[in-house]
Amino acid sequence: MTVRIATWNINSVTARLPKLLEWLESAKPDVLCLQELKCSTEAYPAEAIGELGYESAAHGTGRWNGVAVLSKIGLEDVVRDLPGQPGYLAEDAMLPVVEPRAVGATCGPVRVWSVYVPNGREVDHAHYRYKLEWLTALRDAVREDAAGPRPFAVLGDYNIAPTDADVFDVAAFEGLTHVTAPERAAMTALQEIGLQDVVPRPLKYDRPYTYWDYRQLAFPKNRGMRIDLTYANKAFADAVTDTYVDREARKGKGTSDHAPVVVDLDL
């Protein structure tokens, strides 16, 4: 059985819906993990996406976050939020809020989580500490599946470049989030429980970046980062036959600032 699984930070599923539908028809993934829906679960365009044959498990509140799993091969055992997921206490809030940043589902022979890891903002910001706490909760939540025999992967926008080679110029990120030692240690912790980074093969460019800022011609200059990742267990990784970043989906006007990452499996 061949299965195509993809992940894409869509940067507003309602604003990018025509782009998303077009891409689903051309790329034909069996499973797609979406992040940054920027819409509530109720406002999620399930009907339009369903017309292409996809079931959806969406999780959003209508603000800046939100995640979903779309599947043509079944959608079972849906879990919204990580067990033990921490909340973020904003400066103007009385209580921490558990943000919609994770949804898990079993899609045919594969179990996946779609995750949108907190950005972290600045190293000395409360959001950075929240990011590290969230990553610890992620590790704990997926430990059993990571060690199991069923193909399993955590796909999404990790907001971390795992190595210096995953940013266009590491000197440009000195003192900033996304490249700090504690963040990268959290990625190492995922490897220690049995997950591995499935790296897309380079196509036109040597470095398979997945995100480029809208500003300063970052995309044409390929000043990007690889932060949209697939961390998979052995059963999943051993079945991978191909993986690539679909840069074409980043081109033109009205696109997300991220490109989809596609992984093909032979199970």
UniProtKB/TrEMBL annotation:
Organism whose genome encodes this protein: Kitasatospora cheerisanensis KCTC 2395
Classification via PROSITE patterns: AP_NUCLEASE_F1_1, AP_NUCLEASE_F1_4
Protein name: Exodeoxyribonuclease III
Manganese recorded as keyword: yes
GO annotation terms (biological process): DNA repair
Pfam families linked: Exo_endo_phos
Transmembrane segment boundaries: none
Endonuclease/exonuclease/phosphatase domain sequence ranges: 6-258
Protein family membership: Belongs to the DNA repair enzymes AP/ExoA family.
Signal peptide stretch: none
InterPro entries cross-referenced by the UniProt entry: AP_endonuc_1, AP_endonuclease_F1_BS, Endo/exonu/phosph_ase_sf, Endo/exonuclease/phosphatase, ExoIII-like
Site positions for Transition state stabilizer: N159
Molecular function terms from GO: DNA binding; double-stranded DNA 3'-5' DNA exonuclease activity; endonuclease activity; metal ion binding
Site (Interaction with DNA substrate): H258
Positions annotated to bind Mg(2+): N9, E36, D157, N159, D257, H258
Active-site residues per Swiss-Prot or TrEMBL entry: Y116, D157 (proton donor/acceptor), H258 (proton acceptor)
Cofactors: Mg(2+); Mn(2+)
Cofactor binding description: Probably binds two magnesium or manganese ions per subunit.
UniProt keyword terms in alphabetical order: Hydrolase, Magnesium, Manganese, Metal-binding
Site entry: Important for catalytic activity: D228
Keyword Magnesium: yes
Species classification: Bacteria, Bacillati, Actinomycetota, Actinomycetes, Kitasatosporales
